[in-house]
Design brief:
By secondary structure, the chain is of the alpha/beta class. The protein has two domains: 172 residues, D-Maltodextrin-Binding Protein, domain 2 (3-Layer(aba) Sandwich), CATH 3.40.190; 138 residues, Periplasmic binding protein-like II (D-Maltodextrin-Binding Protein, domain 2, 3-Layer(aba) Sandwich), CATH 3.40.190.10. It is built from eleven helices and ten strands. Helix 2 links the parallel strand 1 and strand 2. Helix 2 crosses helix 9, helix 2 runs antiparallel to helix 10 and helix 5 runs antiparallel to helix 8. The longest helix has 17 residues.
Length: 317
């Protein structure tokens, strides 16, 4: 890791010294309070100095709405889970018949942990206890969230048909409905700012554990194949996780349009590695960002600038 950090620092300096220009790039995210907004904001504030470029965060109604903008070059970078990017690149799921051939992976950022949370004093103790309870469903404007929520329910042998569904448009609406008492559980990513906001408004929240046995994990993976179960440990500032809690996880990706210059992607990655600790300080979940895992083989095309960077570090053959 020390070698990687040293190399990244040298590479960043070399790229900056040889660059004849500086540009501003747009990072598309979901709305304020979401994890993608937190990641994008941290990158924009921390990386500009060493990347040699500036970044502006552009919030949208959901990660799925950003995909076509990146594909057509209207937005430069964005963040999304591996299932959504895979579906977009291959024209599957919500993107059926709409292949986004211009998307390129830049980095695997970190394992994303998601789940249902309830009020701290709720009698609901596990995902299985959500049967018959009021839970957000449909996610008409953000289909991928509905798929993820279905996967967590499937872990417990449940589906949307087993809960008292309350139709919602997107993940922010789901959190707002919970805060307003319209639902008894909400779905969100651990560490997101919106979770802190909701917890403060209802007197505390608690994430529900998923099952860890093989059968439960297979049910979950039938809905979201790249998912897996990890145990999230309590840490300072992590709302809703007071004890080690098994949750659904999957890789979260930073991706770009192929229109983004190779040199800009190289500089961005070098800056990410060099400023790993600062990124974690800017947005807590980024403490899980591990440069050694940035170039995992995930079956998707990497940006040429990312390939060049990873090959130079021996992370990509």
């Amino acid at each position: 890791m020390i070698k990687i950090l040293k190399f990244a620092a040298v590479l960043a300096s070399a790229i900056l010294s040889s660059a004849a220009w500086s540009a501003q790039f747009a990072i598309g995210t979901s709305g304020q309070g979401t994890a993608t907004y937190g990641i994008g904001s941290a990158m924009a504030s921390v990386l500009a100095k060493d990347a040699g470029d500036s970044f502006v965060v552009q919030p949208h109604g959901g990660t799925g709405k950003i995909v076509p903008l990146v594909n057509t070059g209207k937005v430069d970078y964005s963040l999304a889970n591996i299932l959504e990017v895979t579906n977009a690149v291959k024209g599957r799921g919500p993107f059926k018949g709409k292949v986004n051939e211009n998307l390129r992976v830049v980095a695997v950022v970190y394992p994303f942990e998601v789940g249902f949370f309830v009020k701290a004093d709720s009698d609901i103790k596990s995902v299985g206890d959500l049967k018959g309870r009021k839970v957000s469903t449909e996610y008409s404007g953000q289909k991928i969230i509905g798929i993820l929520a279905k996967a967590v329910l499937a872990n417990a042998g449940l589906s949307f048909d087993d809960v008292d569904g309350v139709p919602v448009t997107n993940i922010i609406g789901n959190a707002n409905d919970f805060a307003a008492g319209k639902t008894e559980a909400a779905f969100f990513a651990v560490g997101a700012g919106k979770v802190d906001q909701v917890a403060a408004s209802v007197g505390g929240i608690r994430f529900l554990p998923v099952n860890q046995d093989d059968a439960a994990e297979k049910r979950m993976q039938k809905v979201v194949p790249p998912s897996y179960v990890t145990v999230t440990k309590p840490r300072k500032g992590l709302t809703g996780v007071d004890v080690p809690t098994p949750l659904m996880s999957y890789d979260y990706l930073l991706y770009a349009g192929k229109h983004v210059p190779d040199s800009a992607v190289e500089a961005l990655l070098a800056a990410m590695v060099k400023n790993r600790e600062a990124l974690g300080e800017a947005y807590g979940p980024l403490t899980k960002f591990d440069p050694a895992n940035m170039a995992k083989d995930i079956g998707l095309p990497y940006h040429p600038g990312a390939e060049k960077f990873y090959k130079a570090q021996g992370l990509l053959k």
